[in-house]
User: Which sequence fits this backbone?
């Protein structure tokens, strides 16, 4: 899998931390800055697959940064973040060359949906596949095969598997998994996570071989890098 890189230009430390967390989990290598001029400098020298840009920055405006990127022919998809009060300005944000925008506060689910859509549009996910032992995941078609045979996963099972595969060796606690997979939806509980893992194991494990998902007793789960 080729490396995906993201640049975050956001001065709100909480929002920036959430963005870094989500993008890292989605397999991005992330650079983050709170300053517009530093953001420009990053993008001038580095190549990014995605840029998340805040509208209001301490040293300049997001729109000004956006213009700079487009003038430099940086064709990276740009997701702009705006505050509710700036709703009426969104049109100019889009005209200024942003590919999409998200109004703060946003949910993790909304954010991920926008990122996936932007990446798809760009084709960055084309041909992306994850592989682990006998299990293969095609991120574009969402097809999962075990020993070459197609298996059908429910959406949460699929999210769980790809999250584990993209973050091998990282231990996810039950809390992490409830927050990431359910994100405030009904039915979220530790038991729902356990059931989801159980169903996933049944579908992707091979009889007689150890499960691809390791249980860390009292903590959570991980996929152990081989
Ligand atoms: Ca801001």
Assistant:
């Amino acid at each position: 899998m080729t490396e995906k890189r993201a640049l975050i230009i956001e001065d709100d430390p909480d929002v920036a931390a959430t963005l870094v967390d989500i993008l890292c989990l989605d397999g991005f290598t992330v650079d983050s800055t709170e300053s517009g001029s530093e953001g420009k400098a990053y993008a001038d020298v580095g190549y990014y697959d995605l840029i998340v840009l805040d509208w209001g920055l301490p040293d300049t405006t997001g729109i000004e940064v956006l213009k700079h990127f487009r003038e430099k022919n940086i064709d990276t998809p740009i997701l702009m973040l705006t505050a509710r009060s700036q709703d009426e300005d969104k049109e100019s944000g889009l005209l200024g060359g942003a590919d999409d925008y998200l109004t703060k506060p946003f949910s993790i689910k909304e954010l991920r949906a926008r990122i996936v859509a932007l990446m798809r549009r760009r084709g960055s996910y084309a041909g992306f596949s994850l592989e682990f032992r006998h299990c293969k995941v095609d991120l574009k078609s969402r097809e999962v095969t075990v020993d070459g045979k197609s298996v059908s996963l429910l959406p949460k099972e699929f999210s769980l598997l790809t999250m584990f595969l993209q973050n091998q060796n990282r231990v996810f606690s039950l809390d992490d998994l409830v927050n990431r997979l359910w994100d405030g939806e009904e039915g979220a509980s530790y038991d729902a996570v356990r059931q989801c893992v159980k169903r996933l194991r049944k579908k992707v494990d091979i009889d007689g071989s150890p499960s691809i998902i390791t249980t860390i007793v009292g903590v959570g789960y991980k996929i152990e890098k081989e």
Summary: The radius of gyration is 19 Å. Residues 11-12, 54, 56-57 surround calcium ion (CB under 6 Å). The CA atoms of residues 57 and 126 lie 33 Å apart. The chain has two domains: 4-122, 129-222.
